[in-house]
């Protein structure tokens, strides 16, 4: 979305850096989460065997490991244009404090969405587009970020249903507990918000029919299927859809974006416009 006419090598290189950065920083977030939750995880069936919870890894060792993860993430960040450093820095506060959300709000999944969606804001400066001076790019990035937040809340609500009984006993707050009786209605609403914002992103960024058909269309199909078929009372079924549903939806969006990039880079839309002009003549 940032620069459709960027060279394939620039897009591929930046994508590789983003993949590495996302993997490392997500790992750092998980380690920090396990540190914060080391006294809560032993009370939840799904998490009581986590390394810190079962005392296989000491908190001190986990802190050292977190430091190594953050340094690796910094190395990736410094491989991007320097402007990205200033855009990325605020996300560290979210990464460090997200685990506290489940202690004070019924919507920790929203805070998780704010944290894990931050990369949506980074793509533009990574390819040389300054969000602060480009209103169109800022609008597209904001819509994409918000769409990702809605998506994160959606699939993590399914995830939270795996622990709903243990969370209630341990006093852990979650959106699944708060809306247990109307979960599918909430999921449907979140899907509608995500799809609407994803489409708004495409409009703001000037995307063409390949994006709207491929990315938005596949997201609607995969999310609709997941919400319809997930069995919220079945822990294994929730885990299957959480694990695979993100790949189905994310894969469709990624393919739609790739197709749109190729269509614009190779001038397919230009050819269509020329053909339309000839037809009118």
Give the helices and strands, then pairings.
Blueprint: H1 8-36, H2 59-78, H3 83-104, H4 108-116, H5 119-126, H6 135-160, H7 164-170, H8 175-178, H9 183-205, H10 209-229, H11 235-265, H12 268-280
Helix pairs in contact: 1-2, 1-3, 3-4, 3-5, 4-6, 5-6, 6-9, 6-11, 9-10, 10-11
Give the amount of beta strand, in percent: under 5%
Count of domains: 1
Q: Given the C-alpha coordinates, what overall shape results? A: globular
Structural class: mainly alpha
Order of helices and strands: HHHHHHHHHHHH
Radius of gyration based on Cα positions? 21 Å
Number of strands: 0
What's the mean pLDDT score? Answer: 90
Largest sheet: none
Helix content: over 70%
Unreliable residue runs: none
Distance between the termini: 33 Å
* Count of helical regions: 12
Transmembrane segments: 74-98, 110-129, 135-155, 185-204, 210-228
GO biological process, one term: ubiquinone biosynthetic process
Pathway: Secondary metabolite biosynthesis; terpenoid biosynthesis
Subcellular location: Membrane
